[in-house]
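Render this sequence as a predicted structure.
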Amino acid sequence: MDSFSSSKKRMLTLAVLCAVGGSLPVMAAPADGDVVRTKDVIVTATRTAEEVKVVPQSVEVITSEDIEKLGATDVYQALKLASNVDVTRAGMAGHNVMIRGMSTNHTLILVNGMRRAGEDTSVTQNVYALDRLSLSDIERIEIVRGPASAQYGSDALGGVINIITKKSGAEPSVMVGASTGTESINNYYHINFGKQGNFSGSLNMRFSKLRKNVMPDADGSNYYGPTQDINFDGNFDLGNNQNLNLNLGYYHEQTAADYKDEFLSGTMYSNKDKKEWYDYTRKDFSLAWTGKTPKNDWMIRTYYSYLDKDNNLYNNRAVFPGMMENILGTMYPRYDWDKSKYKLFGIEGKDTMAIGEDHLLTFGAEYRSNKVEGTRMGNGGDNIHSEDRWGNGVQRTKDYSEKDLETYAAYIQDEWMVNDKLLIIPSVRYDHDSSFGGETTPKIGATYFINDHNRFKANWGKSFKAPTISELYMSMNRAMGLMTVTVLGNPDLQPEESESWDISYEYDDDKNWGKITYFENDVKNLITSPYTINPDGTMVSQHENVDKAQINGVELELGRRLGKYWTIKATSNWIDAMDETTNERLQNRAKNITTLQLMYDDLDPYGYTATLWSQWVNKYRWAETVNQVTIPHDATYNTINFVVNKKFGKGNRIFAGVDNIFDKKNYDVFLDGRIWVAGAEWTF
């Protein structure tokens, strides 16, 4: 504990010295058209439109132009240079997205400010969410670092990622794009219907094929196969500054995963010809009525999101020809499947009201209903049969049950301009959850403008994450090699809670910009799933509120415009993330990630943009389990990456990029060598 306290003091000292020392080559935001623009407007931090440099929270906006310059083909690639957002592979499928060292399920992911249905266990929540989004439909990505439950309720312990989709422009157009690379093949289309009387709208379609990839020493491949994503956005002008917006979405995925035969001895295998199939379908709907008056800006919206997930597993246990299946039945199945349906319904309303010249009051309320039904929701439901996927007449019977939760919430926020130098934003929210009762989360942030180029920011707040339906009620048996894993929910779980504060200094002028932030986050009642192995070979895991964690760190960003065409930018993020229950470092986190970027843009509509960057990952903590003993390891590595765009007028380009140019590999942390991508887009 002493070493932990010492490291915390060192980081705080570093933050203070850098902020007031005046010796850093801190930077300013360049003009529009360059990488960083202080005039970017963010709505996620306050639910109102505010400039990035004004809001107290640590925020970042990634625009569609930034995404193009990165040569990104999916949302994770678009986030790879975001400050203190750690994006890594999550095993065979999906990605971890951790903000300020908090776990992936502590990031609230929104699309146009709305939640979407998805998996809800501690190891699956948010892991696949961004994979199911079409990058060509994204106008910008807004990132809020730090807790945001005072604005959004549950789940925002680490921060918020809000995906803002494209709206129809005034003139009709069609964009056609295609890309290929190490990980996927994609073709996509964005149709802008333009303004047709009182109606405007757009249609976005993306069709992808995920490539198969097997890392050495891995148990199996990634999930590979076709996916489709289709979204429609329509807007009808009702007159009198009122609009009706309709959004419809459809996503379908049919993927598979292959497993390696686990050779034991002679002709004995534990995973002979093992294979798994996945069939996911998600449907999304939202309808919003918005309006403006000289003093008010209001919205009433309802939304519904539905995910149907079908998972089939074949496992030819050659080591036990028929014995386990006949004797133990569902405990050691050759054929296993799970079916789950996640349903989310919500209705919300908010109003922003100008009260005099100094106060902007925002208040609102919402209701959400979550329902999960399927074979993993415990016993006592109806019996259903699996399909005969293998053509051998085999069917299995499982219980099919459903559970639901309801949440009511109300919030209020005041943006108070105390004088021409000080902005204070206090807010508070109350949530009532049907599983545990009420939770109140206050927050206050302030920005002090020293002058036009210098400002201090500070924030304090509380946040929480409600236990999910699966964490409360799950009862799942799943075949894993020679072992069956049983995961049990716990209806007595309490919400995870955090208290956080941060302080920042920011500077900008015509050529330079920079910011440095020190933050602390104390978390309690963390939900974990300790497991035990029984004498019969089964492993049982049950969710519990047992862990506490403290995560402290420093975020540093520096940049300079080098003449008219070149920009250099550096970010460095230090994280001290400790499990206070064991006094050990939290796993799957780096001690420090530093990135140096060099960007070129000739500002010619028929010219080039290029980005070269190097990233250093220091002491990434991972662990292996040997004979039920966890052995921690640290990995340190560096990658060099490059992307170039050739422009052919507005909306037309070809691009190519390579991540990890020198093909460095460390399979323990899913660094599996060089990744390339190439593509083209054309607008008519």
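Summary. The chain has a mean pLDDT of 86. The domain at 2-683 is CATH 2.40.170.20 (Maltoporin; Chain A).
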